[in-house]
Specification:
This protein has about 120 residues and is mostly beta strands. The chain has no helices and 11 strands. Strands 2, 4, 5, 6, 9, 10 and 11 form a 7-stranded mixed β-sheet that branches. A 4-stranded antiparallel β-sheet has the order 1-3-8-7, with no helix packed on it. About 30% of the residues are buried.
Length: about 120
């Protein structure tokens, strides 16, 4: 599993960004995927995730503004972020939970992180 993120950047408050995360190494259609973020001096927090192939969850602070989606044909998960606020500023990381067929363990792979900066 190799995750590559893109789409971060700098925007003004109220703007939008879409993050993408591609699994270039395997078929992720049956795997759990989601997004975390980490602001300076803060713990990493779960932003959005697929809890099942068709069910999603969001942290309260982004509900109604962010949307997670996935395109299994492209092995890609997206995070559409609208109405961005300065407090959304953080490094965003995608993840994928997968079954390691060599060790028979459930593992989590992470993307490299992408910076999102929202100015007021």
């Amino acid at each position: 599993v190799q995750l590559v993120e893109s789409g971060g950047g700098s925007v003004q408050a109220g703007g939008s960004l879409r993050l993408s995360c591609v699994d270039s190494g395997s078929d992720f259609s049956n795997n759990g995927v989601g997004w975390y973020r980490q602001a300076p001096g803060q713990q990493r927090e779960l932003v959005a995730a697929f809890t099942s192939p068709s069910s999603t969850q969001y942290v309260g602070s982004v509900k109604g503004r962010f949307t997670i989606s996935r395109d299994n044909a492209k092995n890609t998960v997206y995070l559409q972020m609208n109405s961005l606020k300065p407090e959304d500023t953080a490094v965003y990381y995608c993840y994928e939970d997968y079954w390691d067929t060599r060790t028979y363990e459930l593992r989590r792979a992470w993307g490299q992180g992408t910076q999102v900066t929202v100015s007021s």
